[in-house]
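Design a sequence for this backbone.
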């Protein structure tokens, strides 16, 4: 049996993020991550399948939280409101992780492979939310539309939260996003500027006038 290493997962995650920032994601190896954490590569692979999973290790927790919150929502709640409540239930997970989330976002922006993996994660969360809605008796396509719209709102809200100079709570940005979505679907959202009125043709003077 291998020797127990205290707090190994967090040590590996912290070492990986530090190295990703110092050297770039592509130029960082699993061997270097393990060494920086004072652990072995074998220990690394007990917790992560590869270095990419260091940045996506919390996906299962988010998945479980969304499904559980939708399942426990009051009967009769509107599908989109149910999804919104599930998304807001995630905010405590990110409360003290804003600096980490901003560093992670910078890595995603700089790396196409990581952006693709992020899209897969979001699609998985939407699929899980839609499945939980269907279990509550919500028919299709309402279940899928509500889930996809909710995840889209969450994505935009999360990016705004990272950039917010006032550091407002993530739940506030989620609510603002939902309000904007409802305004758009109700036809009361921002509209394109009206075209300037066309000038009336100048009257022509009759000949000989």
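Sequence:
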């Amino acid at each position: 049996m291998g020797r127990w290493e205290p707090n190994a997962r967090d040590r590996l995650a912290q070492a990986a993020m530090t190295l990703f920032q110092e050297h770039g994601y592509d130029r960082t190896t699993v061997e270097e991550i393990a060494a920086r954490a004072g652990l072995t590569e074998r220990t690394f692979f007990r917790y992560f399948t590869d270095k990419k999973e260091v940045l996506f290790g919390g996906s299962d927790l988010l998945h479980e939280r969304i499904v559980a919150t939708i399942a426990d929502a009051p009967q009769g709640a509107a599908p989109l409101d149910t999804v919104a409540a599930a998304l807001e239930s995630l905010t405590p997970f990110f409360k003290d992780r804003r600096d980490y989330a901003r560093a992670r976002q910078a890595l995603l922006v700089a790396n196409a492979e990581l952006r693709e993996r992020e899209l897969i994660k979001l699609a998985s969360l939407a699929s899980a939310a839609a499945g939980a809605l269907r279990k509550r008796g919500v028919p299709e396509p309402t279940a899928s539309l509500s889930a996809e719209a909710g995840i889209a709102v969450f994505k935009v809200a999360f990016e705004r939260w990272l950039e917010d100079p006032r550091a407002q709570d993530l739940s506030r940005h989620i609510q603002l996003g939902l309000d904007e979505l409802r305004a758009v679907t109700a036809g009361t959202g921002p509209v394109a500027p009206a075209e300037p009125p066309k000038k009336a043709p100048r009257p022509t003077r009759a000949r000989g006038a």
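The radius of gyration is 24 Å.
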